[in-house]
């Protein structure tokens, strides 16, 4: 964010992501650090209150209201940053960003939690004038930073992942324990801060309950036709994940048979665009790139934060995660945290669905090798039992020569193209790890 504000003078940064993941805090911190004048306007609060900016229709009108809103004299684009928070509250201001950027009177930055929905309501999207960056809750590596493990130490672990080497036992035990804590705390900044203060899970769970309810309340701001269905789908996510197939069961949403994906496409779009849910689409013909053969009708949804899920499933009983209780199946939790991790690293998520061969948890595109990489997530000791994955890898027409099984096991082993790795290594899967300074096309030869 600092680099953008210091170097990219020709665009406005637009930060998208769910509420309560730290967008406003981060922008406020950087803005106050770099600019003498920092003006913050929460447009959601304005819409629910005085509505000062509700009927702004020109840049001059906006400048005038800014000067009334911010009592100190404003400067210029060198020393003044205007932060438009929750900009989706006023879609007409999204259109105005193009003209604010062209005039260059001040620097602007904006954030939103439902920008996908807002853009669909905006007659003129300011393409070319804004750069949209997605923000997520803390992933596992960032949680390690927060809990005192430095980037240099993690870098050494990353090297062992690259060479498919197992960690020594003490290091493995430390990372696995931190991973279990991450399953409980999750990556919402307030929850992580409460955990760091005194390790009191009562206070951490209070954050989880508040945020979960906030996400449910946000759905009620949608129109009446959709809001009850949005809430119902959101509430059904944990129970759907506990089912064998883990898919959305459409007839459960309104207790009506004959319903399909198309009947709830707007509701699914709201949940994913607002950042509170992560969608995983089915693939029956796994060819690279996966987007070419995705099927939306067989849909899985995960919560955007694993801490929210473990709160709903286990509450204050942390032993469900910290101890190897035979009565507790953590498969849903492990799958959720890997989905969250992959999503934060930029992967579009898919899973394999085939009536004859079974299902594989996740499929991702391996851009370096131009192949599909299947992932299976195991939380128990039976991590080598995966009939669907075996059939998948052995199907010659798919051209799969490598798969990964993540589990609690320390040792790394390989068998018939399947690599067994400890689950915390999922933090090193990167959507595109090619050195972007080297992606230069050769000059064309003149004919």
The counted number of beta strands is 13
How far the N terminus sits from the C terminus, by CA atoms, comes to 44 Å
Bin the strand percentage. Answer: 15-25%
Average residue-wise pLDDT: 91
Largest sheet report: 8 strands, mixed
Uncertain segments are: none
Structural class: alpha/beta
Q: Kindly report the spatial arrangement of strands forming the biggest sheet.
A: 7-6-8-9-10-11-13-12
Specify the overall morphology: globular
Counting H and I runs of at least 4 residues, what is the number of helices?
A: 18
Helix content: 40-55%
> What is the radius of gyration?
23 Å
List keywords for this structure.
single chain; 447 residues; alpha/beta; 5-stranded parallel β-sheet; 13 strands; 42% helix
Textual characterization of the structure:
By secondary structure, the chain is an alpha/beta fold. It is built from 18 helices and 13 strands. The strands form two sheets. Strands 7-6-8-9-10-11-13-12 form an eight-stranded mixed β-sheet, sandwiched between helices. Strands 2-3-4-1-5 form a five-stranded parallel β-sheet, with helices on both faces. Helix 9 packs across helix 15, helix 10 packs antiparallel against helix 11 and helix 11 packs across helix 15. The longest helix has 19 residues. The model has no long low-confidence stretch (mean pLDDT 91).
Please write out the topology.
Elements lengths: L1 H6 L4 E5 L6 H12 L2 E6 H6 L10 H11 L10 E6 L5 H13 L3 E6 L2 H6 L9 E5 L5 H7 L4 H12 L6 H17 L3 H10 L2 H19 L4 H19 L7 H5 L10 H9 L3 E7 L10 E10 L2 H9 L4 H4 L8 H14 L5 E5 L3 E9 L4 E7 L9 H7 L9 E5 L5 E3 L2 E5 L25
Parallel strand pairs: 1-4, 1-5, 2-3, 3-4, 6-8, 10-11, 11-13
Antiparallel strand pairs: 6-7, 8-9, 9-10, 12-13
Helix pairs in contact: 9-15, 10-11, 11-15, 12-14
